[in-house]
Design goal:
Length: about 375
């Protein structure tokens, strides 16, 4: 999940349990002592108070609250927070006011900063390789939202097979003709997903959980493509590995994207040419994985019969051509948005920091950039 995500109010989340007034970082100074300092970005924690107390017993916690990019850069240049060893961002919708974590920002971090534990599964907003070259481990929180994202993916898959957007919009219009049209004609163009092939791009934790739900609930057959073959996982869900993305596209009835965005578009015109005609596309990963112009063309010519999109290429802006279609189910990047996810994000970030303090990089629970990490 990126920085451009819903507010707690939009997500149905409760207000902070012990909300503190917003403060300028200029009012915050590190306390003296032998404890290492952690920079807490954004709002107060809301749920895991005992664990936060443990964190505070082992770290000197310094707060930034809400702070923009320029003020954040100035504070780093002035070493306002001293030589902090880590950063903690418990929520994806706060603490990211400084924007993308690119080289400009990372170069200003003190050399002492060795770990950044943040909420959210996606990390397209942070240059994890540059962080690694700085000697900083980046830890995401994908496991905390796995269940919520997988549930939302099932909703989108079912929407594609059963024309749920068409039926929903017709009823919502309160127009008798629209209702009758959907009521009388949807059955001729919809299908049950049972027995069809779900092709998953990325059999990570979230992709695997989606596969488990799809096989158990709908008896779907699973194929997958990933940069690394995962035989234990494929055996657990009876999945078939495809050597190439094109092989997966050509043999699947519904393609689901569950892979990180690495900076390059994954599906464009050349890839859509390999889709089975009339197949479906679901994306719960990152919007920029799909060329939306090419997707619109694929929907126009019938290559894609339906799509379900939680994420969009230009968030928070949605492609109006997609929004106007009855065969496209759209969400507002909320697949992982649940109270349970937020509780898990908050907890996992602290577990990463505490684990790192105890065992170094081996204690980090969910690191994503160790393969590039520059070690002292």
């Amino acid at each position: 999940m990126s920085a451009a995500t819903p507010t707690p109010q939009d997500s149905g989340l409760p207000p902070p349990a012990t909300a503190a007034p917003s403060k300028s970082s200029q009012e915050i100074t590190p306390t003296s002592g032998s404890k290492p300092t952690v920079l807490h970005l954004g709002d107060d924690i809301r749920w895991n108070h005992e664990l936060y107390a443990e964190l505070g017993s082992k770290f000197n916690i310094v707060r930034t609250y809400s702070i923009g990019r320029e003020e954040f850069k100035t504070a780093l240049k002035e070493k306002r927070w001293g030589d902090f060893v880590g950063m903690y961002r418990p929520f994806w919708n706060t603490g990211g006011e400084m924007g993308n974590w690119d080289k400009e920002l990372i170069d200003l971090l003190p050399k002492s900063c060795k770990i950044y534990a943040s909420a959210g599964a996606g990390f397209d907003w942070v240059d994890t390789r540059t962080l690694a070259s700085h000697g900083t481990i980046y830890c995401n929180s994908a496991s905390a939202c796995t269940e919520s994202v997988a549930d939302a993916a099932i909703v989108l898959i079912l929407s594609c097979y059963r024309a749920i957007p068409w039926s929903f919009l017709a009823a919502r219009s309160c127009d008798a003709k629209e209702f009758a049209d959907a009521n009388q004609n949807i059955a001729a163009v919809t299908h049950n997903p049972n027995g069809s092939v779900l092709g998953i791009v990325g059999l990570g934790r979230i992709g695997l959980r989606i596969a488990e739900k799809a096989t158990r609930a709908f008896e779907m057959k699973i194929k997958y493509y990933d940069v690394v073959r995962m035989e234990d996982r494929e055996k657990s869900v009876g999945a078939e590995f495809c050597d190439t993305l094109e092989e997966l596209l050509e043999s699947s009835d519904c393609i689901l994207l569950a892979t990180p965005f690495s900076g390059a578009t994954l599906l464009s015109s050349s890839q859509f040419a390999h889709f089975k005609r009339g197949s479906r596309l679901v994306n719960i990963a990152r919007g920029k994985l799909i060329d939306e112009n090419a997707l619109n063309e694929a929907l126009n010519n019938g290559t894609i019969s339906a799509a379900g999109l939680d994420v969009h290429a230009n968030e928070p802006h949605v492609d109006k051509r997609l929004a106007d279609r009855k065969n496209v189910m759209l969400m507002s990047h909320t697949a992982g948005a649940s109270v349970e996810s937020h509780i898990g994000f908050e907890r996992l970030g602290m577990e990463n920091l505490l684990g790192w303090l105890e065992k170094g990089e081996k204690g980090a629970v969910s690191p994503v950039n160790l393969e590039w990490l520059k070690r002292d």
